[in-house]
Amino acid sequence: GAGVSQSPRYKVAKRGQDVALRCDPISGHVSLFWYQQALGQGPEFLTYFQNEAQLDKSGLPSDRFFAERPEGSVSTLKIQRTQQEDSAVYLCASSSTLGVDTQYFGPGTRLTVL
Amino acid sequence: GENVEQHPSTLSVQEGDSAVIKCTYSDSASNYFPWYKQELGKGPQLIIDIRSNVGEKKDQRIAVTLNKTAKHFSLHITETQPEDSAVYFCFEGGGADGLTFGKGTHLIIQP
Asked: Least CA distance to A108: which residue of chain B?
């Protein structure tokens, strides 16, 4: 594809439900990042993959958050037992290089927990 | 973004004037400083970046300057146009603090 795509674009969940957010990075990009962006704030780092390896998950706010990238391409961010404070836009970005370099962002998934 | 301070949070300028947004950081090991533009309902888009071995970089109406000694970097937009209205984020990376965005500057271009 031409860019990073994310699905769904909008998700409404009842408190306590599990959700899964999908990211399709740019083809061939080895690095993949997830960020959480609260309303009116800058994106906050959640986790980083290099191919299928999750090298950094220091930003995941709790053990209810889990991310995977089993084949080194598509990634899924899963949130279990959602809480109202999980309401945010979840952004995915990919990069063609290892480490810190230009990141290309998807449009994000807006999660609202009622 | 607690390791990156971005100012101002809101900036209103007349069309055609210049806009300057500044970020300060604390990690001396950081070596990559991009600026992103985010429009409503979209993800951030890279507009310019600079690495720690360069003091200034320019791309048409947009420029970024880096002062490693003072640990700050700035975004300069000249001859502002209505389509420049958006939220701008600075970013620092490559250091021990990881990947950190500033809190954003809402730039408003007044016609």
From this structure: B43
Interatomic CA distance for residues A90 and A23, integer angstroms: 10
Closest to A50 (Cα-Cα) out of A114, A1, A99, A111:
A99
| A contacts of B100 (beta carbons < 8 Å) | 45
pLDDT along chain A (114 residues), means of 10: 90 98 96 94 93 94 97 97 97 89 94 98
| Chain A environment of B104 (Cβ under 8 Å) | 40-42
For the stretch B54-77, pLDDT in tens is 899 999 999 999 999 999 999 999
Going through A8-108 in order, the beta strands assigned E by DSSP cover 10-13, 19-24, 31-37, 44-50, 53-56, 65-68, 75-79, 88-95, 104-105
Q: Kindly report the nearest CA distance between residue A65 and chain B, in angstroms.
A: 19
Instruction: Give CA–CA dist A21/B39, Å, rounded.
Output: 22
Provide the edge-to-edge strand list for the sheet that holds A19-24.
A5-7, A19-24, A75-79, A65-68
Q: B82 with B109: CB under 8 angstroms?
A: yes
Verify whether the Cβ–Cβ distance A42 to B103 is below 8 Å: yes
Q: Which of B31, B46, B99 sits opposite A102 (nearest CB)?
A: B46
